[in-house]
Design brief:
Layout lengths: L9 E2 L3 E5 L5 H8 L17 H13 L3 E8 L5 E11 L9 E9 L8 H17 L3 E7 L3 H9 L3 E11 L9 E10 H21 L1
Parallel strand pairs: 5-6
Antiparallel strand pairs: 1-2, 2-3, 3-4, 4-5, 6-8, 7-8
């Protein structure tokens, strides 16, 4: 039997990750339209597409291969983006999760650089390693997306390489094309060091108020 992903509510000092529901759609529609200049290679719906976006994510969740979240800013109480667990892999036994990906991540322009991304990753990684007991967490992005690659490396993930023609491109004008994907990971052996660095980083954002 394949492992079914089910993500619980995860809360820190800056962000609460809530399982995605249609009640988040109105706020996500506002968040997605703040400034789309950073979304060149990322799948972020337009305001009028958010309901369909949520429906599509929930359909993926029904397969057990995705656990989508809305990212809620604790400062404003509003949904400011999305993220997810994705692609569970059980290599040794059917009932033990060995690896999972964190992906489908985007944030409103106003939430970028506030510590929300760092703390969301801390919450997701910590749950994966310390509750599920995974051996690794993967992250991937369009190989051309320098902003996303820098953000992934900033949360402690190591670059492993580029897989050519690996997944669907979300870049404008590239419908029906495949992209090269830059692959990053954190392993269980690296987690304690990574967690310490993330906790220090989040603490600096919290201290700024």
């Amino acid at each position: 039997m394949d492992h079914k992903l089910e993500g619980p509510v995860l809360e820190g000092a800056l962000v609460r990750l809530e399982p995605l529901e249609h009640r988040h759609a109105a706020e996500l529609a506002v968040a997605a339209e703040e400034n789309r200049g950073t979304y060149e290679f990322t799948w972020v719906p337009r305001a009028g597409e958010v309901e369909d976006y949520v429906t599509a994510q929930l359909a993926r969740a029904a397969t057990g291969r995705l656990a989508p979240y809305a990212q809620i800013s604790l400062l404003t109480g509003r949904a400011v983006g999305a993220t997810a667990y994705w692609e569970p892999r059980c290599w040794l036994t059917d009932d033990r999760l060995d690896a999972v990906e964190v992906g489908f991540t985007w944030l409103a322009a106003s939430a970028q650089g506030t510590g929300i991304n760092a703390e969301a990753k801390l919450l997701l990684f910590r749950h994966a390693f310390e509750k599920w007991g995974v051996s690794r967490v993967d992250l991937k992005t369009d190989a051309r997306n320098d902003r996303s690659r820098a953000a992934i490396q900033s949360v402690g993930a190591r670059f492993e390489g580029v897989l050519r023609s690996w997944s669907r491109s979300w870049a404008p004008g590239e419908d029906g094309l495949l992209r090269d994907s830059a692959i990053f990971s954190i392993t269980a052996a690296e987690w304690l060091e990574c967690r310490g660095r993330l906790e220090e980083r989040v603490a600096r954002f919290v201290a700024r108020g």
